[in-house]
């Protein structure tokens, strides 16, 4: 600075003007040096680093590049140059250095935040990240880093120790708890969710209170995002998964079988004992031939052993059409190629209701995909609805308006036919 001022004075400039010009020239020189240093850092050093990162055998360092960790770190170079050059301005060096230090702290904060996010990205490349996500912990670390950075800046500006400021924060703890309530609850919930392995990214969950029914696509500190089957996104507070009710279908997905639990409602008036004619017809059904032959012999032996009177159905042991139908459905499912035979499979009779006698099919498909599961279930019940009349079974359904209309028309036609026949008889 002194040399530049003397050089300007040699050109017959007044000391005052020379002083101002020397300051201007020095500022321009420092600015040019900063621009050159920034250019070298961004255009040369960063390209060398990027080339090395992209062409080595490691993949985790690509995440550092995507999060611009090195790019943000390069911003420190001009600040260091300004800090070093501050001594050339004796009257303002303290202010310049403080500004440079504060800028360096903020740049360091940005670098640390990007580094933490990059660590989370690297962690997500491992399979364990679906079971133990750390995004919530990374977000907590981000908050802590920001708070520490702000405290360092304030303490540097006021010239006090950071510990003094930290002791003063105790008085603001109630306010901080109020401001960061969701974050604190989310942190606690995140620990419980991870420790108990309650949810993972990719799990299908159902939470009626929040209208959520779909796959988890993101687990963060405060929220869990669920993509519903209609492609909408439902955001659920993390602590709600600990305090509220939800269903996780992961067990079904891991087992590889999806449950069918649906009933056919049989009209109770159509339930009857099996006649000899019906017995012979049902023996022609492939799944029932062996069963009916064996049962026929077993019942005949039983009736003979106990000398039961065969003159009336009530007096002897007999098969029913509903029992044979249940056996047919069971054999049909046992031979179905898309039903898991290693999981629970049964056809059971539930308590009678006003809608008839429920015959429930309880089985598991070998395909858990929604569309395929529905197609398998529909094919099974299409067949059962069509085959039920072969057993003399009528399935129940509530009468519709058309049924009542046909009943009235039929009644009217019978009444007219009766009057016509009566007149014919009188004539």
TrEMBL record:
InterPro entries documented for this protein: LSM_dom_sf, MS_channel_C, MscS_beta-dom_sf, MscS_channel_2nd, YbdG
Membrane topology: Multi-pass membrane protein
Mechanosensitive ion channel MscS C-terminal domain mapped to chain residues: 325-394
Stretches assigned to coiled coil: none
Keyword Membrane: yes
Mechanosensitive ion channel MscS domain: residues covered: 182-250
Keywords: Membrane, Transmembrane, Transmembrane helix
Regions that span the bilayer: 20-40, 69-89, 101-119, 140-157, 163-180
Domain of life from the UniProt record: Bacteria
Record localization: Endomembrane system
Family membership noted in the UniProt record: Belongs to the MscS (TC 1.A.23) family.
Name of the protein in its database record: Mechanosensitive ion channel
């Amino acid at each position: 600075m002194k040399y530049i001022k003397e050089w300007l004075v040699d050109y017959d400039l007044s000391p005052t003007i020379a002083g101002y010009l020397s300051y201007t020239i020095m500022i321009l020189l420092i600015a040019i040096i900063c621009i050159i240093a920034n250019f070298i850092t961004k255009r040369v050093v960063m390209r060398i680093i990027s080339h090395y990162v992209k062409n080595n055998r490691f993949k985790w360092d690509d995440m550092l590049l995507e999060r611009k960790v090195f790019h943000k770190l390069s911003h420190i170079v001009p600040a260091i140059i300004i800090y070093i050059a501050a001594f050339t301005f004796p009257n303002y060096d303290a202010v310049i250095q403080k500004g440079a230090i504060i800028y360096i702290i903020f740049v360091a904060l940005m670098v640390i935040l990007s580094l933490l996010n990059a660590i989370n990205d690297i962690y997500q490349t491992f399979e364990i990240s679906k079971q133990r996500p750390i995004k919530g912990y990374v977000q907590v670390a981000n908050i802590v880093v920001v708070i520490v950075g702000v405290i360092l800046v304030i303490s540097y500006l006021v010239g006090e120790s950071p510990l003094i400021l930290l002791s003063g924060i105790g008085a603001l703890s109630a306010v901080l708890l109020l401001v960061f309530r969701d974050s604190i609850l989310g942190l606690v919930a995140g620990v419980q969710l991870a420790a108990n392995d309650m949810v993972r990214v990719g799990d299908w969950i159902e939470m009626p209170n929040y209208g959520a029914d779909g796959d988890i696509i993101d687990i963060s500190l405060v929220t869990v995002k669920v993509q519903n089957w209609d492609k909408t996104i439902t955001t659920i507070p993390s602590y709600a998964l600990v305090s509220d009710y939800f269903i996780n279908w992961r067990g079904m997905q891991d087992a590889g079988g999806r449950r069918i639990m649906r009933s056919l409602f049989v009209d109770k008036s159509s339930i009857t004992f099996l006649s000899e004619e019906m017995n012979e017809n049902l023996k022609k059904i492939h799944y029932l031939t062996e069963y009916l032959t064996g049962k026929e012999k077993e019942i005949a032996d039983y009736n003979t052993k106990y000398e039961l009177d065969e003159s009336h159905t009530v007096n002897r042991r007999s098969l029913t059409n509903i029992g044979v139908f249940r056996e047919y459905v069971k054999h049909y499912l046992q031979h179905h190629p898309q039903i898991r035979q290693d999981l629970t499979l049964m056809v059971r009779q539930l308590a009678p209701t006003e809608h008839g006698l429920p015959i429930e099919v309880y089985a598991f498909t070998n395909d858990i995909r929604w569309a395929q599961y529905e197609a398998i279930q529909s094919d099974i019940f299409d067949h059962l609805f069509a085959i039920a009349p072969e057993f003399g079974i009528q399935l129940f359904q509530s009468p519709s308006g058309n049924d009542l209309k046909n009943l009235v028309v039929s009644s009217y036609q019978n009444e007219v036919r009766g009057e016509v026949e009566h007149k014919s008889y009188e004539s």
